[in-house]
Structure formats: structure tokens, C-alpha cells
Amino acid sequence: MKPPRDRAIMSPHDFRKTGVKIAYGFMVIGVCLISLSMLYPFVNTFLNSLKSTEEFFAFPPPFFPSRWLWQNYKDSLDYLDIFLYFKNTLYIYAGNALVSLTFMGLAAYSLAHLKVPAKKWISLYFMSTLMIPAASYLIPNFLNLKDLGLLNTFWAFWLPAGANAFYLLILINFFEGIHKEMLESARIDGASEFRCVLSIAVPLSVPIIVTLLLLGFSTVWNDFYWSSLVLKTEKLPIGAAIYTMIIYPGSTINWNVRFAILTMTLVPPAVLFLFFQKYIIGGLSLGAVKG
Amino acid sequence: MAFRSLRRYSWGLLFLIPEIVIFLVFLWIPIVKGIGYSFYKVDFVSGNTFVGLRNFREVLANPDLPTAVKNTLVYMFWALVIGFWIPIAMAVSVSELKRFQGPARIVGYLPSIIPAIVLYGMWQWFYDPVGPINTFLNSVGLPEFDFYSKGHAVFSLIIMETWQNFGSAALIYVAGLASIPKDLYEAAELDGAGVWARIRYVTLPGIKNLVLLLLVLQLIATSQAFQSQMLMFGGGPDNATLTYLLLMTREAFVYFDFGRASALATLMFLFLAAISILTLKLRRGDDPA
Amino acid sequence: MRKTFVLSLLALMLAAAGCGKGNGGSDASGSPSSAPASASSPSKPSADASASDSASDKPVEITAYAYPPDKTAENATLNARIKRFTEKHPNVTIKPVYWWYENTEVAVKMASNSAQTEFTTWATEAKLLSEKKWIADLTGYMADWPYANDLNKLAMQPFVIDGKTYGVPIDAYGMTITINKKLFEQKGVPLPPLDWTWDDLLEAAKAVNDPAKGIAGFIPMGKGTESGWNWTNFLYSAGGEVQSVADGKVTATFNSEAGLKALEFYKKLKDANVIPKNWALGYGDALTLFNQGRGAMVMCGSGNALDGAINQGKISKDDVLLYPIPSFAKGGEHVGVAGGNYKVINGLATAEQQKAAFDFVVDEYFTDAYLDSIDAQITSQNSKKQVYVPQLINYWNDDSEYGRKYEAMLAKHDNVYKYDPELTKLMVSKPEATYETQAYYAEMANVIQKVFTMKGDLDLQKLLDDAAAKVQQASFDKVVVQ
Questions:
Q1: Contact B26 A27 (CB under 8 A)
Q2: Is A39 in Cβ contact with B265 (below 8 Å)?
Q3: Does one domain contain both C291 and C158?
Q4: Which of residues 258-317 of C touch B (CB under 8 A)?
Q5: Residue C2 domain flag
Q6: E-only strand ranges, C229-367
Q7: Which of A181, A269, C210, C276 could form a disulfide with B113 if both were Cys (CB 3.0 to 4.6 A apart)?
Q8: Structural domains counted in chain C
């Protein structure tokens, strides 16, 4: 199923024109510059984690540490059982992904391709939740979870993960791109709607599903405020664990050690992304989706 | 009759109901309770007292409110002008790369996994009077640029935010571009369309709906912006970066007045909901579901 | 999903600011923990025994304020203290729970009644927490506690509101100016005299200033409420007041002549170009610049900036100096803002729980066990090559017998920072305003930013009058003075 990578907007033929070559050159330079700027904080965090405390605050800041202090990493493990929190994070994320994709996927498919009464009002029901700032219902939200008995359980994340209008709208948009005729012919062959979702809609939407999986991952990875309120210490995901135990206001852990911990937290998402990125392009059957 | 229509809708409703319930339980119930707070003096110890529209009167009388509304609109406008097209351009560019497409796709996503504390530290250093940008400007004989002045602060924020956030949108666009059938390009090329023409007549129409959707989502997101404003400039200088939501979070977390904070949120909700219902009505004619 | 991220950032920022307000660096200094289990507490007051009698034998469960997990020594001593207390009061069960006080989280904790029965907070929070009834009125318990009158009156002040006591002090600070001596030496600039004036500060800042290298003479905070907090030192030093309270009415007074002088001084600092150009400095930002050697002077509570500079910034302890807030004119008083850390009791707990929590909090106040715990902390810091920076003001009176015991204990160690006795003599610490202080700080932040960023002549008196009118109308007028 590998799509022809050699062909996108430009074809090999176009590159015979000088104008196109120059434009392409500029484009490549632009992408390179942006990429470098994106890599900078990564490299900088890593190098800061190897500096001595004196060097960390030296001004102007040296880019490279004069001596690479791997000891900081060893020290950092004293402060945090980082693997426990990695595990919690993955646990939360797996449940989030399962719940959110299942329920949002079904709902998005329904709104895109099935007969539903008052479709617009149902869409509005979902969409209008975006229009009220989350901070304003923070406390009712917390009390609600408490009333439901979900505090200190991962369910407090898994179930609400399905209530995300942003992802839902994007899924609807992609499902709408699927040809009705394909679904019709499947139905004539006797496929149930469940089958249509599983064997047509999902395979055709692999790129956006993977994209949403990745976006969802960084959300879980970064969240520290909400989860530190909802979960007890030993159940926290990594971001919240770091926030409450390492960089909390008044922490006296040295900055280079704090950065060693921060650097370690950068690795898993980066690896995950490298692994998943190829699915953003792959998996599409040509012509199955209308333009 | 009712039974027949129910059968007609059975799959559609079956697929929708779990999601409707999830939204109800985990979003709408808290939201409605939150809106309810705007009519109360919120007190967790002695219980809430109904105060009618007092909270609304108070927030509307706040002299900072017009400033905050204006700042928010200015911010939304410039964020759109400066930032909105970048993820599209980046996604198109990356999809055209002949090599290293994979790594190029990853880069925009990187800032979203970097802890906020690192990011803000980095931008403070970039914008520093003796930081890398000003050092560069000095070295080529240009005057120092004051990123912190009243006139520049909003742009400093938008540049930073665009850099930080374009990756997520770019990823979604990349996925959108991937769903444009390649044979359309082939056909366009055979018809003699140049590269620009293909972008204009194949690529952009192919992601038109996505662009519109992300446009709406960006407008909603920027109308609720406050975090960078608060972290970088604390809403200053002289309230130049005080946004509507920053005003609201101050009410909630500096003054602990949840009634007034909720009143601000309710006003915003009413305003945005009115706009979207209006657009729905206007579109009803030309776009049957 | 973005929303949680947004809230996270909010928390991060507010936490940083909040830390600045009162908590500043208490972590590194004398937070009250208790002695190792081996240490007996011989001087136990008999009152405790009677307290446990009166509190019947009904079982009571309370939660105690645990330390962050990286503070293993402090948590161990807390556990030991719990053990000693529950042995004396077998009906009380105490569970240590970790939640670090933060103003972004306290509302949620209160709404769901999940804060500890006793927790630590800052001087600035007194009015807000007591007004919301989130903390209990301790007046009755204080009356029964024999040591209540031995508490340091100055430290008590912020939590005594309308004659009622809402908190027990742990330690307190008075604002000081921390100086990076090395920067002065590098430029061959003589140090200003300790008994300095505003002009001395300005001259010193000008002399040591080096904008081309990114070094500022003086780093005033300019972002968030902490900027108003910083500026209030100059208001106080010029003899001004934030507000006056009369006939149940709060009136803004910071637009007085003293306020004008203080704002004119900020304008002078700005015109002399001795402050960082990136004015948007919160508490943490300002201290980081100081640690980087990018500013020669910074304003902070007691030794907090100095503590960070020595222990985190690794500036040698001989290179940092503490000065009082300068006096407006030669021979004048060196008045600065006071603040500190306090133990409070959860207002949502039952009366039995509140009583037990209060007994637990003060159980080892004024005992040897308390001193032993600080002793152990200094020793452990020594092993990490850190310097212990004591708080300038403690819950006891320095000239009491207990104060002398504390001094003797500190004298045993080499790694204790010693305040210049001259400094403590010069410093006059004055508590923060009582009513709507945050609103005042936030409005002042705006005025300060105008001064720091606007070019040309400004009508400073008008800026202050406008700010005063706004705070008056929006906040002070709504205050109900009991």
C-alpha cells in the first residue's frame, strides 16, 4: 500500500525549470531554519542538564558545558522514581486513546455519514463546549468528578478524554471526505455500520487518527495542573510528578539536576513520534477519498 | 411512524449516544454549574448566596474590561495575519520534500513536548536586550529592538506563540494533504497546470474544509488566550497584553471571586454562541446536511 | 485538550509569583520540623496533658502538612513528631498528606474539602483565607495555650485580624536588598554604607551599571503583583501607607506625597537606565538575573535572595551582602515590608479536628525538640556543602531565653550565614496592608510598568491618583471592616 512518494504537487518534470528549482531551494532552506529553531530548545535543555551549577547560571550562558556532568542524571534518579511515572503516564494515555477514539470515532462517523435527527443541533451541542473557557468551570468539574467517585482513579482521565470537541470536529471533517459510494456499496454487500467504520472509515483515516494520537500524547505528557489535583502522588503522570516534586515553587533541587529530569522526559515522546510519523502518510488507498 | 423513524435513525443514534452522554456528564454538567455560579456569591464554607445580576454589573463596570476586549481582538487579528498561514505553508513544504520528510514532520511537534518552563526561559533569553537577536542586530549595525515595549509586546507574543503552536496545526494539515489523491496532480499537470496553479486549484481546494475548520478553531483559541500574556508580560506593560481571559483568571485566582469570573465566562459564551447560531442559520439555505 | 495545558501554565506562573510573596525560600531555612525520635522533649508543658484530658477520648482523625518527597529528612522528623504526639494523645490519628500550599489550588482544595487539617501559608493570604472562612479562628485555642504570649508580636501581626488570631507564625522576613559584591569589585566601585539612603542606592546602581554587558545596577520586579510588593518598600521607607482604616471604611493613601516620592525614585532609576530593559521580571526572573550576575542589587525577603544565590546560584557566600531598605534621607528609618510563613487550621474541619490539629501544630513549639530539628537540618545541609540561611524573624522573641538557646545552637555550626548585627539593628519591618492587598499590588504593577516603559515626562501624581481612585472604587469601597 505504499503510496508513490516521488509524487506530490511537484513532479520530477517540474525540476527541469530553473524557477521551480530556486523556489524549491528557498523552501528547503526555510524548512531547515525552522527545524533548527525547533531543535534548539531540545539541545539546549540537554546541554544545560550536563552543566555544573555555576555554569548553569553563568552569563553569557555557555552553549556547551565545559565538562559533561553525567552525574546529574544519576543524582536526578534519587529525587524521582521516573519509571513509575512513565508507567502511569502510559497507562493514562492508553486508556484516553482507547476511549476517545472509540466514542469520538463512532460519533464522528455518525454525524458524517448516518441519518440522525437534528444533526445541526447535535453538532452545536458538541461544538459550543469550545466556547466556554475551561478555567470557568474548573471547580464544578472537579466537584463533579468527586461526586462520581472518580478522584484518584484513572477513570477521571479516561472517560472525560472522550469529551473533546476539538478532536471530534477534526475527525468529522476527515470522515466527511470519504466517498458515500464506497460506504453504499459496502452496505449493499450486507456490511453493518460497525463493519463500515472498521473496514472503511478507519483504514482511510489512519493519518488523522495517528495525528490525533500524537497530539493526545503530548497533552497527557504536559498536563501537570489538573492531574496533580485529581490524582494522589503515586498515580501521577510524569508532568504532574515533576511539577509537584521537582520544580514546585521553593524547590531547592539544583537546576542542572532539574534539567536532567526534564531531558529524560523529552525522550519517550520523541521516540514515539519517530515511530508513528510514517503512518501519517502511509495507509491510504489512492482515489478512495474525494478531493 | 415514530417507530419507523427510530429505526431509520437507529445506527446513527447508537453511535452518537455514548458521546452525547460523555459530553453531558463531563462537560455540560460542569459548564452549566459554572454558568450558575455567575448569579451567586460563591462561598464554599457558608454556602452560595444568590445575588442576581450583581456579578454581571460589577464586571461590566470594570474599567479594564474595554481594554481587555480590545486587546483580545487585536491579538486575534494579528495572530491570524501573522500566524495562520504558517502551518499551511509548512505542511505543503514538508510534503514536497524529497528526502527527510519524516524528520521534517516531527520538528513542528517538538515544542509541544518541551516543558513550559524551558520554553519561556528560552524566549526571555531570545528577547533579552543582550540576547542572540539583539546581538545579531548590533553586529550588522542595526539598532537594538525592544521586544518588551508597549507597542511591540503583542507581536513578541504572537511570534513566540506561532513558533510554539504551529506544529499541531501543521500535522493536521499534513494528514489532510495526504488525503488528496495524487492522480489529481497528475491530471492537472497533464492539463498543463504549473506548480502554483496546482497548489491553487488542487491542493488548497483539497484542504479547504480543513482550513475553514482550523480557522474557526484558531479564532476560538485565540479569543481565550492568556497564558503567554501572563507568563511573559503579566498582562503588561500598562495592560497592553491584558486579554479577556487574563482578566477572568485574575478574578478567579488572584481575587478568588468565582462569581465574577463565571460572569465573564458566561458573557463570552453567550457572545460566541450567538455568533455560531447566526452562522448556522445563515448557512442553512445553501448547505443542507 | 489544550485547556489542561493552559491551566498548567497558569498554575506555573501563579505559583512562581505566589512563592515570591511570602513563602520565598522558606524551604531552605527554618521550616519547623521536629527532632529525631531519639530526642526526648523534657520541657513539655503540663498544659498539653490537660488539653488531652479535655478533648475527651473520642477518636479524631486529622491530616498533617507533609513535605515534598525530596525532603526526606524533614518528612522523617515529621513522622517522628506525629508518633510522639499520638503517643500522648492516643485518640488522635494523624496522617501526613502532601499538598503544597498554592493560591492557584487552594480554592479547589477547599471546594472539595481536601486540604490538610493543618497547613502552611503566607502572610499575604491571611485576610483572604480568613474572610472566606477557609481557615479557623484560633483565638480560643490561643487563650488556652500557655506559650501564646511568648510568640513574637511582630510575626503574629498579619494573622491577627480585627482582634482575632487566625494563624501561628513559623518564621517571618523583613525586606532587604541583596548586593552582589563581586560586581562592585570588578568595576572598582566602593560599597555603599550600610546606613544608606535612596541617593546612595541610585549612585551605587549608576556606578556598577553596565548595560552593554547586560548588567543592571538594580533589579526591581516589574511583572505581576510582586512588582507592587517591591515598590511598597519605597512607599514605606518614605513614610507612606497603602491605606487607612477609619469608621469601618478603607481609604487608599498610597497616592500621598510619600507615594509620589517613591514613584519619582522609580522614574529616576528608569531615566538613569540602571534597571534591566526587559522590565517584565517576576520574582523568579529577578532572582535568576541576580544569580547570573546580571544585576548588582535585588529586593527580597530577609536572606531569601542570598540563600538562592549561595545554594543554587553557587555564588560564594563572601560575595553577597545584605542591606536594609535605604532610608529616604540620611538618619531616617529603614522601613521595609514584612511577611512570613504561618500554620493555619482548615476552616472546614470539625471542631474536634481543629482542636487536635492546633494541639499538634503547637505541640513542640518552644521545646528543645524544635531546636534539635533545625540543628539536624543544618548538619544535613553541611554534608551537601550548603549554607544554612536562618530567617531573620522567628516565632519567638530573640531576646528571650529560647532565642538565646537558638543562637547558641546556630553558633555550633560553620555553615550558617551570619547576619550583620548592624543590619538587624537598622531594619524596621512593617506588615503588608490588610485589605485587598493583591488588588492594590496588581494596580501598582500597572503604574510601575508605565514608569518603566513610557518615554518622556509623565505626570506621576496623576498616575497614582488614577490608580488610587480605581482601587478605591473597585476594591476598597467593598471592604466590610468588622
A1: no
A2: no
A3: no
A4: 276-280, 282, 285
A5: no
A6: 243-246, 249-252, 297-301, 320-324, 334-345
A7: A269
A8: 2
Q: How far is CA C336 from the centre of its chain?
A: 12
The answer to whether B253 contacts C10, with C-beta atoms less than 8 Å apart, is yes
Which of residues 196 through 215 in chain C touch B, CB cutoff 8 A? 211-214
Domains of chain B, by residue range, sit at 1-37, 64-284
**pLDDT digits over B47-78, tens only?**
888 999 999 999 999 889 999 999 999 999 99
- Residue with the three cell numbers 531555612: C29
| Same domain membership, residue C252 and residue C134 | no
Distance CA(C205)–CA(C271), nearest Å, equals 12
C382 and C272 assigned to the same domain: no
In which residue are the cell numbers 531569601 written? Answer: C304
Residues 225-284 of B with CB under 8 A from C: 226-228, 230-234, 236-239, 249-250, 252-256, 258
CATH code assigned to A80-245: 1.10.3720.10
List, in sequence order, every beta strand (DSSP E) within C5-154.
60-65, 92-97, 118-122
Spatial CA neighbour of B228 closest among B164, B147, B151:
B164
B29, A177: Cβ pair inside 8 Å?
Answer: no
Q: Indicate whether C184 and C264 sit together in one domain.
A: yes
C253 and C215 both lie in a single domain? yes
Query: Where do the CATH 1.10.3720.10 domains begin and end in chain A?
Result: 80-245
pLDDT digits (tens, 9 = 90+) for C175-233: 999 999 999 999 999 999 999 999 999 999 999 999 888 899 999 999 988 999 999 99
In this predicted complex, what is the ipTM?
0.85
B203 → closest Cβ in A7, A9, A11 = A9
How crowded is residue B81: how many other Cβ atoms within 10 Å of its Cβ? 10
**Closest residue in A to C11 (Cα–Cα):** A225
